[in-house]
Amino acid sequence: IKIYSKYVAEMGKHISVETIRNTLRRCGYKARVKSRKPAINENARLERLRFAKKHLKWTADNWRKVVFSDENKLESDYVNQTKKFGGGGIMVWSCIILRGVGEICRIKTHLNNKGYRIILAKDLFGTLLEHDLDLKDVILQHDGDPKHRATDTKNWINQRNINTLKWPPYSADLNPIENAWSEVKKCLEERLKELEQEQGSATKKEKLNKLWKMVEKE
């Protein structure tokens, strides 16, 4: 509507709003609904401030040790259209380190703390093995999700002497893996259809891994 009003004011001609929408689509622009995010309360603000002050003097060497992890739902126009990869989107877990992206795990059912521990045992450890890293030399970052801070999860982590980075609430914006998710979502939109049409016996997991590795290369 704003574009329409500006066009009429500057050009003195009337065109339909639909014509404007179609023109924007042809130029590669897509309509997006502004995402709703929870308001950060005062306690969360203080936690973020404490985190910043605590790590203010961390060096690049300190941050190199951090394994940034997250779960995310990946969707694309192509996924929504064809219902590939499970009903319009897929839930995944992965991590990134300085050396590149880690293992990516498709989450097929509701993820509880037991399932999360299985992911850590298989995919976190698999990432360290792939990049020739020792467990004692890394620091695991994960947020305050209930399954991450469940007693069983904490005990499992402590028993294996895994160092963790206490993460402030409402702080996804501090996690660099968010940029990686953004890139892989672009790959989904741009390349998933191409990958689906490839000949051969590659599984969905293999195709997903291929997309994830594209992020590492780019």
Structural class, judged by helices and strands? Answer: alpha/beta
Strand order within the widest beta sheet: 3-2-1-4-5
Within CATH, the superfamily of the largest domain carries the name Ribonuclease H-like superfamily/Ribonuclease H
Q: How many DSSP E strands?
A: 5
Helix content: 40-55%
CATH architecture of the largest domain: 2-Layer Sandwich
Report the end-to-end length measured between terminal Cα atoms. Answer: 36 Å
Order of helices and strands: HHHHEHHEEHEHEHH
Mean pLDDT: 81
Q: Biggest β-sheet: count, sense, barrel?
A: 5 strands, mixed
Give the C-alpha Rg: 21 Å
The 3D shape can be described as globular
Portion of residues in beta strands equals 5-15%
Integer tally of domains: 2
What does this structure look like?
The protein folds into two domains: 1-33, no CATH class; 59-217, Ribonuclease H-like superfamily/Ribonuclease H (Nucleotidyltransferase, domain 5, 2-Layer Sandwich), CATH 3.30.420. The radius of gyration is 21 Å and the shape is globular. With 218 residues, the chain is α/β, with parallel strands linked by helices. It is built from ten helices and five strands. Strands 3-2-1-4-5 form a five-stranded mixed β-sheet, sandwiched between helices. The longest helix is centred in the last third of the chain and has 20 residues, at 177-196. Keywords: Coiled coil. Residues 8-57 form the Transposase Tc1-like domain.
